[in-house]
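In this section we walk through a basic example: taking a raw amino acid sequence and producing a predicted 3D structure, encoded as discrete structure tokens. The instruction is simple. Fold the sequence below.
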Amino acid sequence: MILSPALDLPDGQAVRLLRGDMEAATVFNDDPAAQAMAFVEAGCEWLHLVDLNGAFAGEPVNAAPVEAILAQTKTPAQLGGGIRDMKTIETWLGKGLARVILGTVAVENPSLVREAARAFPGQVAVGIDARNGRVATKGWAEETDVMVTDLAQSFEDAGVAAIIYTDINRDGAMQGPNIEATAALARAVSIPVIASGGVSSIEDLIALRDCGAALDGAISGRALYDGAIDLREALAALKG
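The resulting token sequence is shown next.
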């Protein structure tokens, strides 16, 4: 199971939010590229980037820090937030991103997800962010009536590389991930599932790895910044 450090990028800084609330942001580094390099030097295999302003605006906003990260490291990076048309997908992949994450459009324009997955095999993931089992969109600001499993299963034949599942109520709260819901989703689909939200200890990572469902990876942010998880130790533990 791959552990990906998260870099949330509002206003060119690396921050972590509490349950997606922009008013509850903690700034951990005003140089996201330097933070990314620290994660890379610790041995991470992937970086998880989020353009938070872009998620709300519906278009890329924090291109500069993302481009700086891509320029400084060759470690594969995935990006979500404000990617809602084919031109933006093409632009980001052309700049060296390994994978784009489509969230809001997975609900509002699923045909775009399918088109992108066909055009860029292995480079398109679906981001499913949920409160109480229902999908939220537009930077988690809007809750829909779409159920997580229904949305995930609708892309079974689309060729998407992964589903990144975030339990919003757990995100940034340091209360542990929603292992039960994550495992249930992974069992319901053949698409690789990556867990996000609430991962706050190495024990959480081990629990996800051993949950009985084949999870492809996990994402952690605040716990890495706070020091609750030592990245080198976590990576070694997951390989052990």
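Looking at the output, two observations stand out. The mean pLDDT is 90. The longest strand covers residues 21-29. In the next section we compare this with other chains.
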